[in-house]
Amino acid sequence: MSRQSHNENKRFGGPPQTTEDLHHHIPYLVNRLASSWNAEQNKRLGTCGINSVTLRTLSVLHIHEKLTVNEIAALAFAEQSTASRAIDAMVTSGLVERQISDQDLRRREVVLTDAGRKLLDASWPTMDEHYALMTRDIAAEEIAVCGRVLLRMIENLKPKQS
């Protein structure tokens, strides 16, 4: 049996036995990429005076305009307590504001301020440079396929609604 067919047949057959097996294990690769990306991203963003949670929060608010802390936590891939602390700091520094919803007086929403928008715009070139480094020498078509496959995997893992 060839090594490749061994890896294909071993898909659900137990833990990896070799480094090569591990390098064919998609969850391992996704976690390794995310870990490397986040570590370097935080170093780069530090030069802009922010971290990845702040950038993701600014980004999702830029797209969605008004969100609750729980919605931000889900969209920015942060624990609720981490998102809450980050938003507190962002309110203090004037990057976001808390508002009462027009539709539901019990709902507290977070919105981006002009200062937050300016910081997002100023820090985004740092993200673009990092992304360019990560995707260097990879064809656009391969990046597109990778994105589609990852989105399908994410969709497969979403809880099914009954």
Oligomeric nature of the chains: single chain
Strand order, main sheet: write it out. Answer: 1-3-2
SSE series:
HHHHEHHEEHH
Structural class: mainly alpha
Largest sheet: 3 strands, antiparallel
Helix content: 55-70%
Q: What sort of overall outline do the alpha carbons produce when their principal axes are compared?
A: globular
Mean pLDDT: 89
Q: What is the alpha-carbon Rg in Å?
A: 20 Å
Low-confidence stretches: 1-7
Total beta strand runs: 3
Count up the helices: 8
Sheet-strand content, in percent, reads 5-15%
Distance between the first and last residues' Cα? 43 Å
Describe this structure in words.
Helix content is 64%, strand content 7%. By secondary structure, the protein is mainly alpha-helical. Strands 1-3-2 form a three-stranded antiparallel beta sheet. Strand 2 and strand 3 (108-112) form a beta hairpin. The longest helix is centred in the first third of the chain and has 21 residues, at 26-46. It is globular.
